[in-house]
Amino acid sequence: MEAVWEQRVKEAVKQKITGRIFSAFNTNIDVIVHLNKQIIKQWIDSTEGCTVEALNSIDVDNLEVVRDKLDFLAVIKDCLGKGKSFYIVLEDLSLFDWLEENTPARREEMGGQAGIIANQMAALDATSVVYTSLLSQKQANLFFPEVLTPVIDDNGLKLNPVIESANKEDSTKINWIFEYAKGIEFDFGGEKVITPRANRVILSTRPEGAVMTFKGQVADHLPELGEKIDVAFMAGYHYCPTEEKAMQEYLTDCIEGLRKLKQNNSNLHLHFEYVPMKDQEAEKKMLTAVAQEIQSFGINENEIKRVLAGFGFQKEADEIEKDERAFSLYEGALRIMETLGFERIQVHNLGYYVLVLKKPYPVALDQVRASCLYASAVNAIKAKYGGYVKAEQVKEAASFGLSTIGIEQIKGFEAEMKRKGIVVPDNFLEEGIIEYDNHYLMIVPAHVVPNPISTVGMGATISSSSYACEFSYVSQMR
Predict the structure, then answer these.
(1) Which of 118, 154, 214, 240 is most buried as measured by Cβ atoms within 10 A of its Cβ?
(2) Sequence ranges of the domains in the chain
(3) Would you call 470 exposed, middle or buried from its count of C-beta atoms within 10 A (0-12, 13-18, 19+)?
(4) Residues 34-47: tens digit of each pLDDT
């Protein structure tokens, strides 16, 4: 069994993404800081009135925005002590001046799923096209030179290098990302906290004009844009407004844009990579709306529990929480497909992927599987070396070996099905595929790289590499 899968990897890494890959909306600059004792001390010493009592008096769980330095430090203290991740918007942008002055050890890089996907696709030698509503020169400079963006002139829409297409009047969306390791002790003015796990806190901005939909002249030329691309990755819908009227206006605009994008290209395929919203009721409405126009959905093993619970599938969510395995993830993904109508759902987990594909699926199943193995190889190289993976690097992953986690998950799925009295194909361990009346199940083992250099953007990398690879093959056949 293992030898069959390893041979598949050797073949899969020879593939190339040849399609025209589009990503849209969510781009920003990430300022990354690795927290240590010295940084925390410097922040506290430079903040007037910063006492343990002042920090503990702030109710972080109900904090909607960061208004000042005390709010910020209270969030950091709470997250470090609980080992939790946190995302919050900064209200007073002058705080960035203080952060820059008091945080010399930092680095800037491309952020946002659309930006990360655009650069990764370019690195893999695909034709990469990106659209973002704000394109300052500072933002444009972080894209690879090969990345293109739609611009409008007297002759209509054309694709220009993004680095040459910046608008000097545009603002820049910046996220500060504060990463911390497990087991580090921090002193907040006399009260010590020890991090129980590694995680990160994101302090975000929402500058005017940072809308997660098409706007301006590009919005009027979407049918032309759709003709120039094969696969589209839509990212940023988690910024959907939560006030009812604003939400409906936003979602109506989103759906209209997606329909126009597909108007002249019936072969265009769209993927949505999930990011949770704080407001679960608003999230349900957003997912229900965008699922009308998008074929593929990417999500991880933790996120799927939230979506299931939000739509009332608490039993499936609880089963994943109790025993996270291929079978429980499959049942959860199937509920989401039945509810939202996606034709493809990919759950990416440590060591394996679970896919549910609605019949009839437009890509041959062996190509879907090969594309997942290709994506796993890309992700393994990213984990080992960090940064963006070049096309010529991918073949190296064939020597890494697939994880035993994924192999054991396939075996465990087969054993569970047999215990339930359900017939499993004789070749399931080697193929990882089961055909049902209206869908296919696919379990694909993946690589696991110990002590990864980077985990940022891994979900987007897996989903974009696999889906783009699927339809690169299809576009070659047309």
Answers:
(1) 118
(2) 2-26+212-477, 30-110+170-204
(3) buried
(4) 999 999 999 999 99
